[in-house]
Please model this.
Amino acid sequence: MDEQTLKRITTPIINENCILILGPDIALTNSKTTVNAEIKKEIENSLGTSVIKNYFSDDEFFQFNDEDDENAALDCVRDFFRKMEPSEIQKKIVEIPFHVIISISPDRLLNDLFIKKNYDHSYAFYSPNPREAFRDLERPGREKPLLYNIFGDMDKTESLVYTYDQLFEYLESIFSKQDLPGTLKSILQDEKNFILFIGFRFEKWYFKLLLRLLKLHKIKSKYGSKKDKSIQIDLIRNFYTEEFNVKFIDEDEPAIIDAIYNKCKELGKLRSKTATLISEMPAVYISYAWGNSGEEKEEVVDDLYATLTEKGYKLIKDKIDLGYKGDIGKFMDLIGTGAYVIVVISDKYLKSKNCMYEMQSINKNKDIQTRIFPIVLEDAKIYDPLTRADYNIFWQNEKAALQKKYNEIEDKSYTGELLGDLNNYDDFRRIIDEITKMLSNMNTLTPAMHKGSNFSQLMNALEQQMQKDKSK
Model:
């Protein structure tokens, strides 16, 4: 890249005027394939070829036979992204001081890299849920950039865009309801900004429409790679030049990012760690029962995670930190040893073997009243003795069912784990009785009160306990 063009790009990056827009294939090391083509293979390998009714290769959208097949396929999409590793180009992008990075992919690879590097940042994503969509964002800057997934988040399947129906609903929401945070909209409509497209799907018809709906045609300075395979056709390239004022650089995308990275390094402008490193904060574990997207407990946990990580807390959450093929038992024991554990208690939590094992592990490590920070959801009926008795009866019945099966085993060799489960069921009844008594004497606040205060009282309680522990 010539020095003049490089300066035109790096100067607005340093001055917080350059928006980076990343395409979906940026994490791939094999340039001969695409993310959606790989996702198609993943779905077919996991669920069989009959699940996908149609795959439209030009736009790379799916059509499924019914809602059940679609939900199963979207679970495969989520698993696919969880197994992905960041590419070298993403690792360099994280170091470059962009103040806004918009991704067309629903993965969290960049967010995970920022956390791993201990870089302060905000993370958000498009959601059809109005409560999510209109939650405004902190004004981003070099020291605390915004990462925004414009096609949803991999763990929020209702936000993903993988079928034409989802695409049309998405475009309609952007056009009619303007389902984007106000801060992001104002940045996208600021004509003083620059835009750098990397790995963008220029040839897709809906991206042309999306750029128009986002009003990006108003921004005068835009750059992309002339060697991007999606822009090789002169007609497409000319369209973006004439309609959107995109200038194309005669370099491939890794070379463009390398040049920007090296220039920022030369100027001493690569991203630096914040004064208070997340790694210096004690780990705070979240113990909760998994649920479906849209359920109250999932929303509370997602809001909690987003709010506290944004404030610099080092949160440990199984869906993010356990990893593929991670040892669930060891992870539950690790939660049990945690000095600070946020416990989101729901009806499902009190009926989950894994969750009750976590609570059993927490209880074994003493000082439980100072170590746990509970949030009790409305469906956890623990304050009325009659409904609390139902949980005792539930585990009594679970034990009876297992005991009956156990008695049918003539040779009792190799049944140590089963005996352990039988003993645990009794312990779960004891723990529920003790924990509910303790919680009845605590002001745990309602989920609505926590969210209404942005979890400020919970954070105050954490800070106070951390300070007490430091002074010991």
Notes: Residues 275-279 have pLDDT under 50 and may be disordered. Residues 3-27+84-266 form a domain with the Rossmann fold fold (CATH 3.40.50).
